[in-house]
TrEMBL record:
The keyword Manganese applies. It comes from Adhaeribacter radiodurans. It is an enzyme of class 5 (isomerase). The gene is rpe. This is Ribulose-phosphate 3-epimerase. Its EC number is 5.1.3.1. Its cofactor is Zn(2+); Fe(2+); Mn(2+); a divalent metal cation. GO terms for cellular component: cytoplasm. CDD domains: RPE. Keywords: Carbohydrate metabolism, Cobalt, Isomerase, Manganese, Metal-binding, Zinc. It comes from the Bacteria. InterPro entries: Aldolase_TIM (IPR013785), Ribul_P_3_epim (IPR026019), Ribul_P_3_epim-like (IPR000056), RibuloseP-bd_barrel (IPR011060). The lineage of its organism: Bacteria, Pseudomonadati, Bacteroidota, Cytophagia, Cytophagales.
């Protein structure tokens, strides 16, 4: 099965966002990954609801919204209305994770949970059957263009095992430092969705780069 490719627009040219979205529309990308950062949960601020709405106006691919924000439960409906197709919240930001996952499903979005690099996969044992996707952070969240953390391979393999043992159906998404070297190894361990920011947008040929990622055999 081909992986789902989700370019992250965090690495796009924000002054020419419409052009960047149109490029992704033409590409083989499956989803458009949108990184929302609040300066509280992560030490950086990216963009919020009005920008997401503007992206939605032009995008012809599902918007995969990654909320790196504190108290995400307060904003689920607003992100759905702004155009999100999937909404991923951080395990570390949700003391009542099960409730937030239900909230996301109630607005008909795919529900995801993200794990920071230090958060073990085993903590998902009692929620894995309720989520549509698990996003494994392969860098510390907050910035694009960081170095991939190699321990991620072990985490992806552990998550694949957990999903199988529970007969669950969650997709495994990996986010941070994905490129032509890390992608094949991630797919080998069982990843289904690859997020790539700088690798796509800093490439001389982003369309070809997206197609190449999608055609990597696992
Ligand atoms: C990081 C974000 C990522 C980021 C990935 O906090 O969640 O989605 O855009 O960027 P690259 O692919 O450049 O590591
Ligand atoms: Zn992300």
């Amino acid at each position: 099965m081909k992986p789902i490719i989700a370019p992250s627009i965090l690495a796009a040219d924000f002054a020419n966002l419409q052009t960047e979205i149109e490029l992704l529309n033409q590409s083989a990308a499956d989803w458009i990954h949108c990184d929302i950062m609040d300066g509280r949960f992560v030490p950086n601020i990216s963009f919020g609801l009005p920008v997401l709405q503007a992206v939605h106006k032009h995008a012809r691919k599902p918007l995969d919204v990654h909320l790196m924000i504190a108290d995400p439960q307060l904003y689920i409906e607003q992100f759905q209305k702004a155009g999100a197709n999937s909404i991923t919240v951080h395990y570390e930001a949700c003391p009542h994770l099960h409730r937030v996952i239900e909230q996301i499903k109630n607005v008909d979005c795919k529900a995801g949970v993200a794990l920071n690099p230090h958060t073990p996969v085993a903590l998902l044992e009692d929620i894995i059957n309720d989520v549509d996707l698990v996003l494994i952070m392969s860098v510390n969240p907050g910035f694009g263009g960081q170095k991939f953390i190699p321990h991620t391979y072990t985490k992806v393999a552990a998550l694949r095992e957990l999903i199988q043992s529970k007969n669950a159906h969650a997709l495994i998404e990996v986010d941070g430092g994905v490129n032509e070297e890390t992608a094949p190894l991630l797919l080998e361990q069982g990843a289904n969705v690859l997020v790539a920011g700088s690798f796509v947008f800093q490439a001389s040929d982003p369309l070809q780069t997206i197609a190449n990622l999608q055609n990597i055999a696992s």
